[in-house]
Structure formats: structure tokens, C-alpha cells
Model the fold of this input.
Amino acid sequence: MDKLRKIGGGCMNCKFWKGWFENFGSGKILAAEDFDEPKQLKSSMLFLAVARKYAGDFALIPENLDLDKHIEQFPLTNYKFRKRGTDIVYSKGGIKFDRDRLAYIIGLLSSIPALNKDSITEDGFVPIYSKYIQRFFPDYKCYLDYLIRTGIVISDGFYIEGKKSIGYKFAPYYEKACLKRYAYHRNQKGKEELSLAVPAQTYNKDTDSLESNPLVNIPYLVHWYQDKKLTINPRAKEYAWQVKERKFASGYSSWDDNHDKWDEKNKRYFKKYPRSQYNAAMHNIAAIEMGAYNAKIDSNVHRLHSAITNMQKDYRNFLKYDGQELTAIDISNSQPFLLCILFNPDFWDKSSGAYINIGHLPENIQKRFSDELLSDIKTYVESMPEDSKSEYIIKASSGEVYKFMMDKANGQYPGCCKEKKDAKIMMLIAFFSSNRFLNQEGAHLKKVFSETFPEIYELIKMSKINDKSDFACLLQSVESEIILHRCCKRIWDEGEHKVPVFTIHDSIATTAENVKFVRNIMDEELTKAAGVHPHFKTELWSESNLATNN
Done:
């Protein structure tokens, strides 16, 4: 069992710092006398700005926080900083103080939930992964300690080794304020740097390293970010504030569920703290305003992520491309539909002539399935009777899988699926949970699927026999291959580089005049892959939707 380690109160004590201050490169622990005159450090290390590849182009800080006045009111040298000479202040790590770095730490309270919606907790504390930050910001604890002790942020005071990082959020005075953008003071030969639409490198937490961003070298995807014609109406910021205020005023029951965090004790999903959602929304809005879309392709399932995919659905209604509204073309019941591709035995044969087979997917996905397992799955799929999958294929092609399963579940467990989203969650559990999770409490909806489509469920089981994540990674990688590299490439080539596309995983957004063209290509590519036509939904992104919704 992981050991739960406590850090006293909301403020860090001396144990928190024990063994931390190390001389760079040598591993030597710095003595107290070293803090006043950090002569032993190389001069190039005395000033260390947070590089763009780590920090991006901006941070968000509370509107009622004036950093200069705050530092004047709470002198740095009263905390874990030391003065050298008349005006230069160093942290105890021996590096010159930089106000941008203080803003960066504050900005993490919005950038982390913006980049990872699943990190939004019920209590509002944002987990900060110290191992990553310490790589490029070795004295970050001095800054964090200052922010806590001077009342800007508070801490939940604990972590679970290997599972949970220490969490932080704004202290009450600052949590009540709107956020404002703080632009870093970097410059290139005396000129301020332009914001970066597509970073050259991205961080891979699994390998704890920076990797090249594949998107940089894919013109049919990267072009539409690099031309920086995607804009957002500033009214989105006012809308974000109103949404937050309404949720707090309406009470806890109105907060959004976090479908990735299950509260086993109370048999419910944890909620998402509205202030954290506001912070995340504001970060993505600011990123698009600056043209810092942070577009990248991940190295796990090879999906394209950006400020657009990261933001909540409502906020896309404020987006325009070159002054034009966008329309999203979405595959109905996308994951259940993509499963139909796996019903082709040749998909499981890397050397087959199938329009898409597992050999077309990235190497890390292929490595999840041994040759022996691929052979076993192919043999099994060849043995599946047509009538064991025909009803499912009809429902998937017509976009009715969720509704069909919702009716089935309610027939056995009346009232268990009150909304379509409940049926969607049921399907995701059936697809992506461990094979061992079937007869336990809470697995009854998964069992409904296994009893309705037993042969299909057996295929899913075989696909994740080694690891429950294998099937999810496979389906999402298939989605990426078709949507990004087949649909979008054809749109680029046949549209003569004039048809804008912005993907949100299984959907493509474009301008109104190009909807039919894009939809036809999507239909052709998906039909060639699955053997049946998909069902599409189209949605115009417009602020008028918000008036209707609210």
C-alpha cells in the first residue's frame, strides 16, 4: 500500500526542504553559508528564466494581484531568498530571482486543468507534478513557499507516493477575483517573442522527457494553426465568469460530474470544482487570443490536442476562422462505430491488403499485441457468426448504439440510464474497464452489454487480455489514423490547401461553405475502413447556441 505522507498544515515546514538544495551537477548539499554568496555556481546559472518549451507564452494571475506591490509588501528576503550586493536577490538554490517565474507558478493553477480536464478535483486543489517542474525550475520550492506564506495560494498538504501530487489553489481573497493575462518578459535580440502556435517539443510524462512534436512536420494539419486566423470573441471570458457564478449559486448538485473519478464510498462520481473549470476555460481562451494554440500530437494514441480540444464544448461557440463561423461534423457513437472496423479478420493481419490494418498504426500500438495474440484474435473474428454482429453493425451505422443499450439497460434495471450520457458511460465501461470487472457491484451495466452481444464482448476481452488500456489505445489510434491522416490529408490535397480543418478527435470543424465537401470525404474514408456508412451529426458553432442553451 502506498504510504500517505503529510506535510504539516497549509504551510510547508522544514522537512519539506530536507535534502532538496543540491549543487547543480555535483549532487553536493549546499551549506547554509552557501546561500548568501552562491559563488560556487557557474555564472550562467545565476539567472534561469523559464523556457518557452516548458512555460508557454503567458500565465494567468488574479486580477486583484499586483506582483510588484505584493513583493514590496512582503520582501523576498523575509522568506527563502537572499540579497547579494545592493539589488540582486537570489533564491536559496543560488539562482537570481525572476518575477516571471513567480507568475509561472501562479499560472499553473489554470494551465494544468486547462491541459488536463481530468485533473480537476472536487475540492479545487490542483496537483502540481514536482518531478517535472524540478527539471527546469530547480528552485521552484522557494517560490511556492513564498506564495503560500504570503497568502496567495494554499495547499492541501499531502501526497500519495506514485498516485497523487500535492495540490494547490488560490487563497480565498484571490479566488474571488477574475483572472488576467501575464505575458512573460522574454525577448529575442531586443524584440518581444511572438506567441507560438505549435510547440516544437512536447513533454511525455511516461518517459519523463521532452519529445519532438510530430505535428510540426504534417502540413495538412499544422497549416491551419500556423496561419493564426483562428480567433475567439472576448465575450467568452465574461461567459466563463457567469457560468462559474451560476454553478456556485445553484449549489453542489449543479456542478459537473467528473466521469474519470469515481467515489466508491458514496457510489457516485466526484464533481468538478467550478472555480477550477473557470481557470481552465480562461487559460484556453487566452491561448487562442494570443495564437498560442499549443497544438500537438501525443505519443501515446497519436491524437491531436490543442486549446480547442481542451476547452469545454460551450466555449467553441465563440470561435471563428478568418471571421467565419465554424461547423463541426461529428461521427455519431464514434467509438462503437469504430469497433466495426475490428470485425474484419484482415484488420488483425499486418500484411493483409485491408484498407486499414493494425500494421498501419504506430509502432507503439502494434507492440501492445504479440504476433501470437494477433493470430488468435484473427482466428476468433473469422469464427464469429454474421448474425452475432449484424444487429450491432446496423445500430452503429445509424448512430443508435447508445439509445439501444440505454433501452436494454433500463429494461433490466429500471431507471438506471436516465440520460444518453449514462448510456455512453456504460459503453465506455464495457469497452475500457478491466476484464475482471464484471460481476462486482457497479458492473451490472457492463454485464448488460456482455449478455446482449456476447461474441463482440469476447473480442473486446481478447483485445485487452494483457492490459485494460490496450483496447482503448487501439480504437483511439484507429480514429487518429483515419481522421487525421486519411480524411484531413485528402481534404488538404483535393481542397487545394484552401479548406480549413480543426479536429476534435472524432470530428472535424470547417467553414460553412466546405461542410458538404468535408463530410463526403469523411463518409468515404470511414466506409472504406468499416464496410458500412457512419451516421453524422453537424453542429454550427455560434453564440446563438448559448442563448438557446441558457
Remarks:
- Residues 93 and 513 are 57 Å apart (CA to CA).
